[in-house]
Design brief:
Length: about 160
Amino acid sequence: MARTRNILMTVFWTWLLMSGAVYVCGEFLDIDMGVLAYKHDSRSNYIVQMMMILLTLAVVPLALRLFKFQSVDSALKARPAQALLRWGALRLLMLESVLLVNTLLYYIYGFEPAYGYLAVMVLLTLPFVYPTMSRCKAETTAASDTDDNLQRGAEEEI
């Protein structure tokens, strides 16, 4: 379990540092990222902005509820360490890739506040998926504990 946590921690901090590097480059190093924007079409910002809003609003709840899905839950019961590595990394990559893209688009489109707000929204969800050892153990044992409690409750009713 410690190896799995270390890998998840590496994924967490790597993607967070990449977003931080984009932030530092855009704020403090005067690197003009606006040259990446397509300036001939004024609708491109609107289209990209709507796509990112919808993507962010879909990814955040999905990532936070990922371990509640039955297929993920059954995988966590069968092989906890391997499933936690797979699904935990997927959850981190879902959130932090959206964070990185929103941060990058904030600077590409000339400090467009919507991308900044979306990046902050994703950043505020990261403490809920921070891969500590206690969270790793809780996420792999919570599924079996819940089933045991439900079974005990059903037996008491009979």
